[in-house]
Design brief:
- This protein is α/β, with parallel strands linked by helices and about 230 residues long.
- The chain folds into two domains: about 40-110, Phage tail protein beta-alpha-beta fold, CATH 3.55.50.30; about 115-220, 3-Layer(bab) Sandwich (Phage tail protein beta-alpha-beta fold).
- Helices cover about 40% and strands about 25% of the residues.
- It has seven helices and ten strands.
- It has helices at about 1-25, 50-60, 85-95, 115-130, 135-140, 155-165, 190-200; strands at about 40-45, 60-65, 75-85, 95-100, 105-110, 140-145, 165-170, 180-190, 200-205, 215-220.
- The strands form four sheets. A three-stranded mixed sheet has the order 2-5-4, with helices on both faces.
- β4 and β5 form a beta hairpin.
- α4 (about 115-130) runs antiparallel to α7.
- The N and C termini lie far apart (about 65 Å).
């Protein structure tokens, strides 16, 4: 019986290590069946961020709420027997917001971002296809991001640059802000940068597109005139 006992202990240990690895590697997020999984939701006068965060956790979805959206805005919404994508789209419409679906993450933002964000993502994707292979590979590499409590976006972007061997030309021009903790699932670096900067009405240019990623500099740029947002902070 002893060999079986030790074998079971070994199996348990291997299982534990695999679970632990999955958690810390960011794979706690599942690739959602946006249009397949049927779910129900009922929110009655709950804070927007709380409701969305609980929903995202329940279905292992990454969530990114634009900094211009009031996280404490009370929301009331109910829908049954609909897929995840439909529920989030209908909720966004009812709250005069927009949502955009990445691979394993949903973005919730101001209504005007409904068209701005997809166009910007396509523009940046096309931009990197024109870059030298070394630079293109770096910007297309998928990375996960853990945002600690009380993080400054400038510091987040600076750390991303350091870890991925590029630099920012004008990072100090980004307005000061403090963010709550969050975990974002693996996504292409170029999409992650677009996501972080969109809340500042900003994107980035690559200047210049050097062959060596170590010499690549990114420059923050304004994308649209600042618009009045009723539920901004």
């Amino acid at each position: 019986m002893k060999p079986n006992f030790y074998f079971l202990r070994l199996l348990f240990f291997v299982f534990f290590v695999l679970v632990l690895f999955s958690f810390y590697s960011g794979s706690v997020f599942a690739k959602p069946d946006w249009e397949q999984r049927v779910v129900n939701i009922t929110w009655r006068n709950v804070p927007l961020k709380h409701g969305l965060t609980q929903f995202a956790k329940a279905y292992r979805i990454g969530l990114f709420i634009d900094r211009r959206i009031d996280p404490d805005m009370p929301i009331s919404f109910s829908m049954d027997n609909q897929n995840i994508k439909t529920i989030l789209q209908k909720f966004a419409e009812s709250a005069n917001l927009s949502c955009y679906f990445f691979d394993a993450l949903v973005y919730i933002g101001p209504r005007e971002m409904h068209s701005v964000l997809p166009e910007l993502l396509n523009k940046n994707r096309n931009l990197i296809t024109q870059l030298p292979p070394a630079v293109r590979a770096k910007l297309q590499k998928k990375i996960a991001l853990k945002i600690p409590l009380l993080s400054e976006p400038k510091i987040i972007l600076k750390k991303i640059a350091t870890q991925n061997q590029f630099s920012w030309q004008n990072l100090d021009e980004l307005p000061h802000d403090i963010w709550d903790e969050n975990s974002l699932p693996p996504m292409p670096l170029n999409e992650l940068l677009t996501l972080i900067l969109i809340g500042f009405n900003s994107s980035y240019d690559i200047n210049p597109p050097n062959k060596n990623i170590n010499n690549t500099t990114l420059k923050i740029k304004n994308i649209t005139p600042q618009k009045s947002i009723n539920n901004s902070n």
